[in-house]
Amino acid sequence: MNKKTVKDIDIRNKRVLMRVDFNVPMADDKVTDDKRIRASLPTIQYVLDQDASLILMSHLGRPKGGSDPTFSLRAAAEALSTLINRPVKMAPDCVGPEVEAMAKELKPGEVLMLENTRFHPEEEKNDLEFAKQLAALADVYVNDAFGSAHRAHASTEGVARFLPAVSGFLMEQELEYLGRAVANPEHPYIAILGGAKISDKILVVETLLSKCDKLIVGGGMANTFLAAKGCNMQDSLVEESSLETAKEIMAKSGDKLILPVDAVIADKFDAEANSQVVDVEAIPAGWRVLDVGPKTLELYKETLKGAKLIVWNGPIGVFEFPKFAEGTFALARMLAESGAVTVIGGGDSASAVKKAGVAKQMTHVSTGGGASLEFLEGKELPGVAALMDK
User: Are residues 246 and 310 in the same domain?
Assistant: First the structure.
């Protein structure tokens, strides 16, 4: 990684403005999953150990313009306070005279949490005046929010124009492991793509095919490829508008593309639906594919043998329904036992390895779904581009 990290600059006794990803699930004003908060702890702890004072900022959800207590970061500040065992002051807003006064008064080792940056429409517009107001609170900017790095917002990109800008340790780790898959992957390199639609992932399919040795495709995406091959997918999710694209991709990819050969099908889209296993060429009328079948899992297992690097983005079945989760969970276990460097794109794939109980056996589980996908497409992420080079 060629970006400077917080270790590459002197932050002793300085005020550090740090962008974190505290966009966490909430219920009854309490954080229900603190994984993202925990992910930022190494950087937070390092900053505090340097006798710096720390000002944290994040977005939460999609508030509809203006301040809204439902989207307040107060509960995240309380959760953080428990984790670091010291008080976290809560600002009434993220800019303005009162916030500036609170930031100025911070002593070394003290922490201030700014209110949701998205309470201001200027955040998503990357308004430079707003970014300048945020930057005025501190001496140094640290971005540790990989999950928001694909967005050019005031708190992820704009601020970096006004302060020395470096990455935190979580950002550094994300760029290192995802960077391996993009820059100089070890071979055999196997990529796995699932999820519903090809249209969302055309670029990533093409980029991965140019770099990997095999590309395993499952989930709803695979239905569109199979339909393009001539299989009657019956009531399965198929993206009609992407059939031509699927044909072109298959024509170019030779034997690199690995598609399902059998499937677990259901008579309706329902957790309690009747199910059976059939070959992909033999789906009966009125039925739909909701998971891959045992022969396909054997094929995947064979494909993964000896892999040095495996990158996985998107589930390969409707894993929210326990009856149709086995394919996704079996694949997660294969990765855990593979001996390869395993990099899991965020979002549903991250939650799949967690539910399968093997998250800790993965080399790296990304905290950013959309960001990891754009990174794998080879796009430059604005929040990363804005940081200082080494």
Answer: yes
